[in-house]
UniProtKB/TrEMBL annotation, chain A:
GO terms for biological process: transmembrane transport. Belongs to the binding-protein-dependent transport system permease family. The chain crosses the membrane at residues 27-52, 85-112, 124-144, 156-178, 199-224, 278-295. It is a multi-pass membrane protein. Keywords: Cell membrane, Membrane, Transmembrane, Transmembrane helix, Transport. GO terms for cellular component: plasma membrane. InterPro entries: MetI-like (IPR000515), MetI-like_sf (IPR035906). This is Carbohydrate ABC transporter permease. Residues 89-292 form the ABC transmembrane type-1 domain. It holds the Pfam family BPD_transp_1. It comes from the Bacteria. The keyword Secreted does not apply.
From TrEMBL, chain B:
Residues 81-298 form the ABC transmembrane type-1 domain. It comes from the Bacteria. InterPro entries: MetI-like, MetI-like_sf, UgpAE/MalFG_permease. This is Sugar ABC transporter permease. Keywords: Cell membrane, Membrane, Transmembrane, Transmembrane helix, Transport. GO terms for biological process: transmembrane transport. It is a multi-pass membrane protein. One of its GO terms (cellular component) is plasma membrane. PROSITE patterns: ABC_TM1 (PS50928). Belongs to the binding-protein-dependent transport system permease family.
């Protein structure tokens, strides 16, 4: 869709394009855009600052942009009460890795099949996926299916399975396959006697790595950020993913104190509540913030492909 | 008999492809189509049966529209529908306006490196969960420590208990929805704008068109199809609210229910606190069916206007 070569050939070496604004209006627009993007980033910076603020400073002055006194108490506290937090990080990593693997396999298989003209029932199966974008089962029936039909209450699979497939990702994958795998390559492999599975594994997949990266990225973000499945199906703190733990602690400060008991800290120690909370927010967000500039490209690509009608 | 034979032959000939689609098809059946069948509990008095899911569906007693009665006789249905639709209308149209404005703004900047940096900044909130965002909001709105109350006290204004004052929340929720969502939409439009053939602009510049005229007569018409398609998709989802926004950002504060009770909030709170499956399912059924009808109708109308803009 976007013709990249077209765009970059017009960008002169110093980064100036004849299509941009000139002079003062460019400066004003630039400042406006800078302000908006700063508004988008500022809360995260603010949370990082609070996580390093000393408790007595928080009690006296609240959340400051430049606190009176800094401290590592919040992080130290988390480190000492590591039981629950390490556990939750473990759960999050587990569901993210396995969920993403499962997602990529199921979506690329399905997406490839419905992109092939030889597949007689491709329209039927495309419809099967597409229809779920228009009509859904709703929360209550889904809840009953997961808890009663599958019996997954307090089971780590309840955090993985409901999020494996999304029709939108399948549509993206199909579009990618149609575009990036040349028919001639598949034809010639078939003439050479390669089986469909072999063609898929050895020719199609290597050609579609950007698409797979995109789907893997969507899926990774979904699992990393999910708290809703845990809210519905998990009551055992051992199975809380990081986001669910965060959500629990926010609405129920007592939970943090219970954590202290679990990890066997002495009673009577004051908890640096807010800085510890914010330290957890930082820990759960940092992986995304740090890798974001690198994966952004794939994300944008997936988005633009997904919004094209074919 | 011949038909049966042919079908078998076709299935056999397509066996490899059927194997490819099998895993995801099983997933769709369990996680999408079974729950669709499960909608029948909206018309039943749902009782859990020891023989499992299907037995529970089968043995629960039919009660007709009784579950809907409560919903529609009291003000509940009206209230949750109004909240959901009003918020979504604001989100859709304000979001469209801001996303297109930012996309055009970024595309006009002379320095493409800056464009990239700003774009990265604006998309960042999209990757955060609503839980994390709710902490962000709390740093500003916390009654005793929040930035806004500190600012107010600096000017001698009394502190506000934000999480107990419903009147502010429609604005806060709209602001947060835009803060988190606009960057994502903007990226789609920006990609479309970058993809517009540059010769249109060259021709316009030679003819002496101003930047504003170029935007009005080239950029906007070129991205109109995309605007239409994305807006239809959003209108199709107008009965669905972003649950995380209403639940996490408000910390599910009961004092705010008047302005946060959307259909999804009602269904969730109904499921977890009331525990009346059938009544809650009725609200969910209402949401799914009207939502479905809306997509079909919007798409049909758009198709009448211009075939190319329709979704299917």
């Amino acid at each position: 869709m976007p013709k990249k070569a077209n765009n970059s050939s017009l960008t002169l070496t110093n980064g100036y394009t004849p299509y941009g604004l000139k002079g003062i209006s460019n400066v004003i627009l630039s400042i406006m855009m800078a302000v908006f993007s700063f508004i988008c980033l500022f809360p995260f910076i603010y949370v990082i600052i609070i996580s390093f603020t000393a408790e007595e400073s928080l009690i006296r002055n609240g959340f400051q942009i430049i606190p009176d006194s800094w401290s590592l108490e919040g992080y130290k506290y988390l480190w000492k009460s590591q039981g629950q937090i390490l556990r939750s990080i473990g759960v999050t990593l587990f569901i993210t890795v396995f969920g993403t693997l499962l997602s990529v396999v199921m979506i690329s298989l399905f997406g490839y099949a419905i992109s092939r003209k030889e597949f007689k029932y491709r329209r039927l199966f495309t419809f099967l996926a597409f229809f779920t974008m228009l009509f859904g089962g709703g929360l209550v029936p889904t809840y009953i299916v997961v808890t009663q039909f599958l019996g997954l209450r307090d089971n780590i699979l309840a955090l993985i399975l409901p999020l494996v497939v999304q029709a939108f990702w399948i549509i993206i994958m199909r579009t990618f396959f149609i575009r990036s795998v040349p028919e001639a390559v598949i034809e010639s492999a078939r003439i050479d006697g390669a089986s469909e599975i072999r063609i898929f594994m050895q020719i199609v997949l290597p050609l579609s790595l950007p698409a797979i990266a995109t789907i893997a990225l969507f899926s990774t973000l979904t699992y990393w950020n999910d708290w809703f499945q845990a809210l519905l199906y998990i009551t055992d703190p051992d199975l809380y993913p990081l986001q669910a733990l965060l959500s629990k602690i926010e609405s129920n400060i007592e939970f943090l104190k219970e954590m202290k008991l679990i990890s066997g800290l002495q009673a009577g120690i004051t908890i640096p509540e807010d800085s510890a909370k914010m330290a957890m927010v930082v820990i759960s967000t940092l992986p995304i913030a740090l890798s974001y500039p690198f994966f952004q490209k794939y994300f944008v690509e997936g988005l633009t492909v997904g919004s094209v009608k074919e | 008999m011949k038909w049966f034979k042919n079908t078998l032959r076709d299935l056999y000939a397509n066996r490899i492809w059927l194997m490819f689609v099998l895993p995801a098809t099983i997933w769709f059946i369990i996680f999408s189509y079974l729950p669709m069948i499960g909608h029948v509990i909206a018309f039943k008095d749902f009782r859990i049966h020891r023989d499992g899911f299907f037995a529970s569906l089968w043995h629960s007693e039919w009660v007709g529209f009784k579950n809907f009665e409560f919903l529609f006789k009291t003000n509940v249905a009206w209230e949750i529908t109004r909240n959901t639709i009003l918020y979504n209308l604001v989100f859709i149209f304000l979001g469209l306006f801001l996303a297109v404005a930012f996309a055009i703004g970024l595309s006009l900047l002379a320095n493409k490196k800056l464009t990239k940096i700003y774009q990265t900044g604006m998309l960042f909130p999209h990757f955060l969960s609503w839980v994390v965002v709710s902490y962000f909001v709390m740093t500003f709105l916390s009654t005793d420590r929040g930035a806004i109350n500190s600012l107010l006290s600096f000017f001698g204004v009394e502190a506000i208990s934000w999480y107990y004052e419903p009147i502010y929340w429609p604005f806060i929720l709209v602001f947060m929805a835009m803060w988190k969502g606009v960057g994502y939409q903007m990226i789609v439009y920006l990609a479309a704008i970058v993809g517009i053939d540059r010769s249109y602009y060259e021709a316009a510049m030679i003819d002496g068109a101003s930047k504003w005229q170029q935007i009005r007569h080239i950029t906007i018409p070129m991205i109109t199809p995309l605007m239409m398609i994305l807006t239809i998709m959003n209108i199709g989802r107008i009965f669905y609210s972003d649950f995380g926004l209403f639940y996490q950002v408000t910390q599910n504060s009961g004092a705010l229910y008047d302005v946060t009770n959307t259909i999804d909030m009602y269904v969730y709170n109904g499921l977890t606190t009331l525990g009346d499956m059938s009544m809650t399912a009725a609200a969910g059924f209402y949401q799914s069916v009207v939502g479905f009808a809306l997509v079909i109708i919007t798409n049909y109308v758009v198709k009448k206007v211009d075939e190319d803009y329709a979704l299917f």
